[in-house]
Design brief:
Blueprint lengths: L17 E5 L6 H18 L3 E4 L18 H15 L3 E4 L3 H8 L4 E4 L7 H8 L4 E5 L9 H10 L5 E5 L2 E2 L5 E2 L4 H6 L3 E5 L5 E2 L8 E2 L4 H11 L3 E7 L13 E2 L3 H16 L3
Keywords: Cytoplasm, Transferase
InterPro entries: Aldolase_TIM, DAHP1/KDSA, KDO8P_synthase
Pathway: Bacterial outer membrane biogenesis; lipopolysaccharide biosynthesis; Carbohydrate biosynthesis; 3-deoxy-D-manno-octulosonate biosynthesis; 3-deoxy-D-manno-octulosonate from D-ribulose 5-phosphate: step 2/3
Length: about 270
């Protein structure tokens, strides 16, 4: 995967890791623009190639009354406005074959959720749009098995594919990151570490997923040290009141310090022979 193939992406020759970051879900225009503005200022200063992330809808919910979105077209138009306002590419996740063509009209990268990455028709539908496809590794899948998901994209005549590790299930209510998987997956695709989803604590009795945001910097530092190509982080200015995944999101007030530390580690790694 050549980052230059993603429209509007900047700082691709800086030698830094690239970043997919934003809120879990698009809750409204003001919040999306506010978060994007904060991130863009930091990534421009630190020369981090940046893609704004926001889900236009949330189909995988623990409970039927959980927030699922503000309306598909409304949210997708907000993603387009973020891109036009700040000159950055955008990524959103899709859940059905029909979503692929619709979302491709608004965003630059289509993301396949971890629970759906084995759905051949969905992966092929995303690939056939010609957009870059980000494949989330299933929590139930080995790093080695992701080569088959990647091959589905390649066989659909699309070479723009990314693999994202988001942790593996550990028992019923925890995730772990097996850092051995990063060099394994880098053999067949550009590889990203989804830091915040790797810290989820699913299957809580309340029906709301928990998390360990206090461990975000620990996991992120380890990912950079392991040589991951990109980092994925969900962030919000008020995680406690976010409408989705607030328990594991990064409070945006810590974002700049985290990026400074990760950039310093990346510079050190780049100096290794």
């Amino acid at each position: 995967m050549n980052l230059h193939n993603i429209p509007q992406i900047k700082n691709t020759d800086s030698g830094n890791f690239f970043l997919l970051a934003g809120p879990c879900a698009i809750e409204g225009e003001e919040m999306a623009l506010r978060i994007a503005e904060t991130i863009v200022k930091v990534t421009d200063r630190l020369q981090i190639p940046y893609i704004f992330k926001g889900s236009f809808k949330k189909a995988n919910r623990s409970r039927i009354d959980s927030f699922s979105g503000i309306g598909d077209e409304k949210a997708l138009k907000i993603l387009r406005k973020v891109s036009e306002t700040f000159g950055v590419p955008t990524v959103t996740d899709i859940h059905t074959n029909e979503d692929a063509a619709m979302a491709a009209e608004y965003v630059d990268v289509l993301q396949i959720p971890a629970f759906l990455v084995r759905q051949t028709d969905l992966v092929v539908a995303a690939a056939e749009t010609g957009k870059t496809v980000n494949l989330k590794k299933g929590q139930f899948m080995s790093p080695e098995s992701m080569k088959h998901a990647v091959q589905k994209v390649l066989d659909s005549h699309n070479e723009n594919v990314i693999v994202t590790d988001r942790g593996s299930m550990f028992g019923y209510q925890d995730m772990v990151v097996d850092f051995r998987g990063i060099p394994t997956m880098r053999q067949f695709a550009t590889t990203v570490l989804d830091v915040t989803h790797s810290l989820q604590q699913p299957n809580q009795t309340a029906g709301v997923t928990g998390g360990r945001p206090d461990m975000i910097e620990t996991i992120a530092r380890a990912g950079i040290a392991t040589g991951v190509d990109g980092i994925f982080i969900e962030t919000h200015f008020d995680p406690a009141n976010a409408k989705s995944d607030g328990a594991n999101m990064l409070d945006i007030k810590y974002f700049e310090g985290l990026m400074e530390n990760l950039t310093a580690i990346r510079k050190t790694i780049n100096g290794f022979k």
